[in-house]
Amino acid sequence: MNTGSISNLSYFQLILRRGWVGDLIAGITGLVMPLSFAPYGYYLVSILSLCCLFILWQDVTPIRAFQRGWLFGLGMFGHGMYWLYLTFHQFAAISFTDSAALMLSLFTFMSLFPATLGFAVNKLRRLNLVCRFVFFSASWVDIIRMG
Question: Could you tell me if 66 and 118 are in contact, meaning their C-beta atoms sit under 8 angstroms apart?
Answer without folding.
Answer: yes
